[in-house]
Amino acid sequence: MKVVAFPRTEQGSGASRRLRRAGHTPGIIYGGPAAPVNISLDHNALYHALKKEAFHSSILDMDVNGKVEKVLLRDFQVHAYKQLVLHADFQRVDENQKIHVKVPLHFIHADVSPAVKLGAGIISHVMTDLDISCLPKDLPEFIEVDLSKMELGTSLHLADLKLPAGVSAVHSKDNPTIATASVPGGGKAEAVADAEAAPSPEEKK
Predict the structure, then answer these.
(1) d(Cα 121, Cα 118) in Å, to the nearest integer?
(2) pTM for this entry
């Protein structure tokens, strides 16, 4: 994904306010052996890019005056109540060094799981993203979580995930819970259980 930026020479809150009034967002590129570079970006282009999931978890091609660098979005600030991006931070990426980044989890096949299809249960997503470590070339935009085998009363943990090649999870807990399958209170599953427990007409005779 390509991002176009422009060098920014003026600094300070006054200069930043003037940039924003002109439809630009101040930012910075840092990291690696090169010195940090102050930049400005087209606000509307940045605002719409931030709505895309991949923009937050992909290696970006940052073009500043024709010079392209590989970067990651590391932070951004938005106005408390206006649709206004105040600042954006980008970190340079070295293709030979591992990066630590958070990627979203995409949950699939919940509708065909025994918990939902047979037990009328619900599957709750305990985590929505995952901290990973990998080389830039191995960075996935997202990680799929297959829920097709979940049954009522069970949980899916980090160890159950199939991570892409070259990707390892970075987490404070050894094996955190990713998702759980349970019966909603007073739901259809309880009615089904009661029906199955009730004696059949033959048993009543």
Answers:
(1) 8
(2) 0.80
